[in-house]
Design goal:
This protein is α/β, with parallel strands linked by helices. Helices cover 36% and strands 21% of the residues. The protein has 3 helices and 3 strands, in the order βαβαβα. The chain starts with 6 loop residues before the first strand and ends in a 7-residue tail after the last helix.
């Protein structure tokens, strides 16, 4: 497998069909793995049902084609907090 793992940001409020079309272009270009992540400009609430549905659309697309999806869960900055989602349910896990 090609070791290249392009980062694939979800921004705006895309549909599953729009994400699958983008993934199709990567696939046609020979890319077989993608790192999926949210970033500034993402209008889909992070870790919401809608967010997970978009991730599922990408994962299903990849599975059908033998591609690999890597999930990068840090929103904008690597911190281990998953954009504060971990601390909401587990404040004891926050650094003091």
């Amino acid at each position: 497998m090609n070791p290249l793992i392009p980062m694939f940001a979800i921004t705006g409020r895309p549909t599953g069909d729009q994400l699958r079309a983008r993934l199709q272009r990567f696939y046609e270009g020979g890319v077989r793995q993608i790192m999926l992540y949210p970033r500034a400009g993402c209008d889909v609430p992070y870790m919401s049902e809608e967010w997970r549905g978009l991730c599922a659309a990408c994962i299903d697309f990849a599975k059908e084609r033998g591609m690999t999806i890597w999930l990068y869960d840090e929103f904008n900055w690597p911190s281990g907090s998953c954009k504060g989602e971990v601390a909401l349910d587990h404040p004891e896990l926050m650094a003091s």
